[in-house]
Amino acid sequence: MRPLFARFPTLADRLPFLSLATLPTPVDSEPAFAAQLGIADLLIKRDDLSASVYGGNKVRKLEHLLADAQNHSADAVLTFGATGSNHILATSIYARQVGLDCYGVMVEQPASPKVAATLRYHALLGTHLALTAGMKGIADTTAAIKAAHPTGAGKVYEVPWGGSSWLGVTGFINAALELANQIAVPPDRIYVANGTMGTSVGLAIGCQLLGWPTKIVGVRVSPLKAITPQFGDRMFTDTVAELHALDPDFPLLDEPQANVNLREGFLGKGYAVPTEATHEAVAMGAAELGMQLDTTYTGKAMAALISDARAGKLRDQRVVFWQTYNSRPYPPDLDTVNCDALPAEFQPFV
User: Fold this and answer.
1) Do 3-57+164-323 and 58-162 fold alike per CATH?
2) Domain 3-57+164-323 in this protein, CATH class
3) pTM value surpassing 0.70
C-alpha cells in the first residue's frame, strides 16, 4: 500500500489510482561525494528506477492521471512537451500499457541524439505527434486533434504539462511519505529539477504533513513565464483543497511558500540548452556517483547543489538530491525503426 493511503485510508477508496511504479525507489548514501563537496551528508533518491520499463518522476504522477482518464471513460490521452520530452514519452508508454491511445503536442527544442532517439521511440509506440509553431499554436492544435479523434473529443483526456495538476502533485506527496519510511532523520534540503512545479509542490506538501523542517530547492529548468512562486502557491492550495474534500482528515495546510525555494540562476540560455556548470555536473554524476544525469533537467539541479556546496552553504546540512531522470535503457535497435509515419516536420530531427 502507498504510504499516503496508509496514512489517509479514505483516499485509497476515493482517489483515482493505478499501480504503475515499482516503489519504494532506493535511497543511496554518498559519503565520498559529500566529503568531496563539503556536505555533511548526501543522499540520492533514485526515482530514475521508479519503474522497470521507463523510470523518472513522471510515473508517480501518471498513476493518478491515467486512472482518472479511465474513470472519465477516455480511450486516448493528450499531453504537451518539447520534442525530446520525457513526460510525453512516459505518458505514451504507460497509456498504451493500460489500453489508451496517446497524442503528443510538441514545441521545438534543440536537435540532439537524445531527441532523435526519443522520437524514434514514439514511432515504435505509435504515438500521434504534432509540432506547433511555438506556444501560441498549442490551443489550436489541441482543438484540431480533439475534433478529429475518431470516437469524439469527449474521449480524449488532457494531461497537463509535466503531469502537474493536483492529481499529479498527489504522487509526490506520497513520495515524501515514502522517503520518511526510509530515513531516520529529516533532510535539511531536497534539491530537485523544477519544470512545471508538480514534483516540488508535492514534496513540499508531504514534508509539511510530516512536520519536517526540510526546504525544497526547486531548480528552474524551464523558461515558461507562468512558472512562478504564485503558480506554485495555487497548485499547493488546489491540491490541499481537493484532498481535504475527498478526506476531511487531510489537513488544510495554508502556507504554500513555507518550505519551497524556486531557485533561479541555472537555466542558462533556455530549455534543453546546457551551461558549462551543467556539463560539469553531468560529468561528476557519472564519475563520482556512477549515475546518469541529463543536460535538460537533472544536470542543472545538480549544478545548483554543487554551487551551493562550494559556497559553503551545505557544510552542516543533510541533503537529498532527487534523481528524476529515467535511467532505464531505450529499446535496442531504435536506429532501425521506420520513422516514415512521423509527420514531415519531425523528419529533420530523426
Assistant:
1) yes
2) alpha beta
3) yes
pLDDT tens across the length of the chain (350 residues)? 999 999 999 999 999 999 999 999 999 999 999 999 999 999 999 999 999 999 999 999 999 999 999 999 999 999 999 999 999 999 999 999 999 999 999 999 999 999 999 999 999 999 999 999 877 899 999 999 999 999 999 999 999 999 999 999 999 999 999 999 999 999 999 999 999 999 999 999 999 999 999 999 999 999 888 889 999 999 999 999 999 999 999 999 999 989 999 999 999 999 999 999 999 999 999 999 999 999 999 999 999 999 999 999 999 999 999 999 999 999 999 999 999 999 999 999 99
Helices (H), the chain: 3-7, 9-14, 31-37, 58-71, 86-97, 113-125, 138-148, 166-180, 198-210, 229-246, 276-284, 298-310
The whole-angstrom separation of Cα 333 and Cα 340 is 16
Q: What share of the chain is helix, strand, coil (3-state, %, to 5)?
A: 45, 15, 40
Residue 164 near residue 297 (C-beta atoms within 8 A): no
Which class is domain 58-162?
A: alpha beta
CA of residue 342 relative to chain centroid, distance: 25
Q: In the beta sheet, which residues pair with residue 323?
A: 46
What is the rounded end-to-end Cα distance, in angstroms, of the chain? 42
Segments making up each domain of the chain, as ranges: 3-57+164-323, 58-162
Contact criterion met (CB below 8 Å) for 326 and 90: yes
CB-based contacts of 92-96 (< 8 A; 24+ apart in sequence) = 92/122, 92/125, 92/127, 93/53, 93/54, 93/125, 94/20, 94/54, 94/59, 94/62, 94/66, 95/66, 95/69, 96/125, 96/126
* Dist CA 171 CA 81 (whole Å): 20
